[in-house]
Amino acid sequence: MKILVAAKKEGWDAPVSERFGRAAGFSVYDDTTGKLEWISNEENKQAEHGVGIQAAQLVASQKANLVITGGSFGPKASEVIQKTGAKMIGDAGNISVRDAVEKYKK
Amino acid sequence: MQIAIASGKGGTGKTTLAVNLSVLLAEKFAGSRQKVLLIDMDVEEPNSGLFIKGKLQQQEVKYRLVPEWDEDKCTFCKRCANVCEFNAIAFLGVSVLVFPELCHSCYACSDLCPEDALPMVQHRMGETKIFSLNNHLQFIESRLDIGVEQATPLIEQTRKLIKEQYSGNEWFTILDSPPGTSCPMMEAVKDADLVILVTEPTPFGFHDLKLAMETMDELEKHYAVVINKYGIGNDDVLNYCNEKQIPIIGKIPNLRAAARLYSAGKAMVDAIPEIRVEIENIYQQILKLTEAET
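^ inputs. structure came back:
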């Protein structure tokens, strides 16, 4: 199982981002290895339009099963993520990446 | 002759000037072969039609072309998503999603797809209506559908319609442009012989007027300034234009009676003599400036 968490910084202790498309980056947790991989969103988040779509493509390319943000997903990001079949968890609140992964991994 | 009425700041009086100039000229042209064509190019929020009510003569649905994904042809090379400058294509490995609201109809994905899996198809964006008010005044309104984000394609089609059907020299064409200085405004003024920048004598009006002037310089457009709501604010616009030798071709006074007529959706030239004189003067100045040009 892979979990993609929108985060404000790299690492386990970083807070979850309340924004999805314009998050600083994404921490991807893989439960087969137990490792956390950081994918920066710095370049993409500067775009005027379609940042949610770009970010949501990561869900597909990373083959994530679960996507977490502290706030809500935009309409276009939602549409794309739904197509990938990943489960979306919004409003996770102001918690760390570690807590988010612990809370939502099965 | 084509005159575009534009501004940086919104709410300075583009529509007021466009409508009142049109009404005045239609009266002046009575008995001659000359005609006025007023076009509302502010397709996102056209409002000239609130002041100009004519008989609907023609109504046309407008389309633009956006790519449509053909699943059977796609080999999932991702080229389409890579070349899209506007993030309008989501590549999901096993499927491709197109977001028409983000698409700028640039054809890059469609033309560069090696499998021809993204043919361009028609997508409804709005409507263009042509009204006739009298023998000397026609009015065209283009209106985007609710939820459509790209204004420029509809403005471009409207501009081409005018070029194709109203280029005869009997037409005096007045364009009510969208506010701002971005693509919609630039597209609207493209064919104009003269651009009139309407401003108000306030710091905000002054600031955005300078942006609009820079835009006109960049487009190498011939332009002049009209100050609306003259009497409020300060003299910064006046002094700046004088210093830069930019012609101020009119000062429309700030009158309560004008605001009252505006709120009732009525033209001012027949009700307020001071404004009629000013609009008449603006017309004479336009003639002078465009004569000097040709």
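Chain A touches chain B at residues 47, 49-51, 53-54, 56-57, 60-61, 76, 79-80, 83-84 (CB under 8 Å). The mean pLDDT of chain A is 94.
thumbs up if we can close this ticket
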